[in-house]
Amino acid sequence: MRHTWLRFPLLLLTLAAPWRVAANPGQLDPTYGTGGVASVELDGEGCFASVLQPDGKVVLVGNQNLYPNRQLALVRFDTDGTPDPTFGVNGVSVITSGVNDPQPHGMVVLPNGKFIVSGFVNGLPHFLGLVRLNADGSLDTTFGAGGVLDVPITGAYKVALQGDGMILVAGNTAGLSSGADFGVARYDADGVLDTTFGTAGLARADLTSFDQAYGLSVQPDGRILVVGGTNGGPLVSRFGVARFLPDGTLDPTFGIGGTVLVPTISEYDVPEAVATQSTGRVVVAGFSAVSHPTFLDADWALVGLAANGSADGAFGAGGTVLKDFAGYDDIVYALHVQPDDRVLVAGYAGFGAGYQNLRPLVSRYLANGALDLGWGLLGTTIVTVPDIYNGDMHALHALPDGRILGTGSINVTSGGTLCAAVRFLNNTCGNGVTEPGEDCDDGNTANGDCCSSTCHFDPVGQACASDGLTCTVDECDGAGTCRHPAQLLPGCRHSIAPLKGRLTIKNNANDARDALTWAMQKGAATAIAELGNPLVFTNYTLCGIDVSSSTFGLLFEIDAPAGGTCANASCWGVSGGSGFKYRDKDRTPSGMASLLVKSGTIGKAKASASAKGVHLGLPTLPLPLPAIVQLRASSGLCFETGFSSAGVQRNDASQFKGKAD
Questions:
Q1: Together in a domain, 333 and 462
Q2: Paired residues of 595 in beta bridges
Q3: In angstroms, how far is the first alpha carbon of the chain from the final one?
Q4: Longest Cα–Cα distance in the chain
Q5: What are the two backbone dihedrals, phi and then psi, of residue 311, each rounded to the nearest 5 degrees?
């Protein structure tokens, strides 16, 4: 593994097999590569930068050891995580000549599909080069000198594109006579220095006696953010931030003359990446360590700056977030701000002494810097594979559907080094869009509607929103729909003699002439107290239920509500001291004209109902059989009759008439 200037060793990416049954944000996408991981072995240090192409393919860049020097190597994975056979040889392109001993740090894809890679290239006057490659991964020798362009700044790390396709590359100006400042050069797609940018093509920001840029991004309005380490004294570094206008002049509305020196967090603070939230807040991510006596126990560090560069006290604790995972080295390399302003951070963390205990991980933070417990396991996904030695993650990309790609490398104990890409599920439950990892998304995170608060189907039979009917049950179907099948109540009273019930339904073209009559005689013993008190509080409902299939269907529901006034008189009255009767000339709300319920000893209890008119909802005839009619009281009592083909007297498109079984 290589080491960089006053920085921690560059490690390699590893990724976890799925650790949760439910598909939640932060879980590996099992449809990508093998269990969410795509990898190709290279005999080198690994891959350190990547780009996401418009077609969803991802291209990684690193190096491979080919004697006598390392050579530039690129890997492209298809959208399913398999190596792309149309790229190089089996998805790998190795540039065997023309790029001497490269250490790539940045990469962009041009509008024409070609790639620009930035990094150190030995033999160049300023050691920093831009390399252009064709869309198939081969070296584009028409660019610069045989495909490589010397850039007049040193220590460069990142490259970015402006909206017009111009190329920005950031580093420092240590190779120039005027000192080591943040330096940004701008080129067109053909590698011609744009002398209208900054001063003769170079923009610079002097923060301290030695400034080294590590991170570069372009804001939506075209302004350019650069972050890096600055000299705060012997073995002391601070987060430095500079913002340039699109033409390369320092932005006077940011910080002091376009620059910000973040107050010391620990002793050795180094930012690696920068991004902007929709509010204009600038988020800087890196690490913070105590430099004496050694650079141990580096922690993840995030800093929030207001749009004008001032400390944003609403982010984290007074503008800063620190994360120490297990008391060892924790380093950030990648940062991505989602459309909802949540912040994804990737790198590695130490879970024991020694390089072999460094593990890659991704955390997600809310817009205000609080850890997002909805990502991974309590905000963090620690990723691993069998035979891992160490690893890290260097880049994050968002797919159009919201899933996240992380790229980097894997070192395994057997000695191999893999360039790897991992795809994370990243659904946003409640946005109304069913995304990978979700069963459903109904636009909310409420339970009880058959699509759970985590956007998975509620189990079959779970209660859901009522349809307002008495004769149905409200339950989930296990596929995200709240269904309302008819429900049969158990324990209803029946006739003690056969054929002592009847049902007649007349369905006329004129709805005003629709009619239904039902009766049950010679019922089982029923006490008057069981009838409840419909004069005041006991509702009655006549339910017709189709039981011809496993899912019961509602044929009709006719209500006789408790109490009430019908035609200036009470709807309910007492019948002979042993029961109750209901009469409503208006037949509201659902067509009931009359109802009688009688208590009595065995064979004496009975019930009957008559309904008609435009308020009556009737089933389509012929009536499906078998069918069951239940008269239900809200007190819990019910009377039941069943009808089958054996008792049918007429069953056609206009009328059903039959006796109970």
A1: no
A2: 582, 609
A3: 85
A4: 114
A5: -60, 135
For 206, phi then psi, to 5°, come to -100, 105
Whether residue 450 sits in one domain with residue 310:
no
Q: How far apart are CA 87 and CA 135, in angstroms?
A: 8
- What is the per-residue DSSP string for 580-630? EEEE-TT-TTTSEEEEEEE-BSTTTEEEEEEEESTT---PPSSPPSSEEEE
30 in a domain, yes or no?
Answer: no
Model pLDDT, residue 19: 31
Q: What does the alpha-carbon distance between residue 322 and residue 369 come to, in Å, rounded to a whole number?
A: 10
- Let me know whether 438 and 413 are in one domain: no
CB-CB contact of 190 with 143 (8 Å): yes
- Pairing outcome for strands 46-52 and 58-66: antiparallel
Domain presence at residue 569: yes
Question: Torsions phi, psi of 518, nearest 5?
Answer: -145, 145
DSSP string of 283-321?
Answer: EEEEEEE--SS-S---EEEEEEE-TTSSB-TTTTBTTEE
Share of the chain above pLDDT 90, in %: 70
Q: Which of 465, 487, 509 is at the close of a domain?
A: 487
CATH number at residue 392: 2.130.10.10
Q: Take residue 473 and report the two structure tokens written for it.
A: 């049950």
CB atoms within 10 A of CB 208: 18
Distance between CA atoms of 26 and 34, rounded to whole angstroms?
Answer: 16
The span from the CA of 21 to the CA of 43, in Å, is 36
> How far is 50 from 443, CA to CA, in rounded Å?
34
> Do 331 and 361 contact (CB within 8 A), yes or no?
no
Q: What is the pLDDT of residues 416-443, one digit of tens each?
A: 888 999 999 988 788 888 887 789 999 9
Cα–Cα distance for residue pair 360/385, rounded to 1 Å: 11
Residue ending a domain, among 424, 448, 476, is 424
Q: Which two tokens stand for residue 224?
A: 């350019």
Specify whether 193 is located in the same domain as 124.
Answer: yes
103, 60: one domain: yes
CB 556 within 8 Å of CB 584? no
Domain enclosing residue 465, as ranges = 428-487
Which token pair is 267? 């002793």
CA distance 270 to 287: 6
If we measure between CA atoms, which residue out of 658, 82, 45 comes closest to residue 421?
A: 82
Q: Which two tokens stand for residue 575?
A: 């019948």
Domain count, the chain: 3
User: Is 178 among the domain residues?
Assistant: yes
Tens-digit pLDDT profile for residues 23-64 = 678 999 989 998 888 999 888 888 999 999 999 999 999 988
Q: Is residue 568 part of a domain?
A: yes
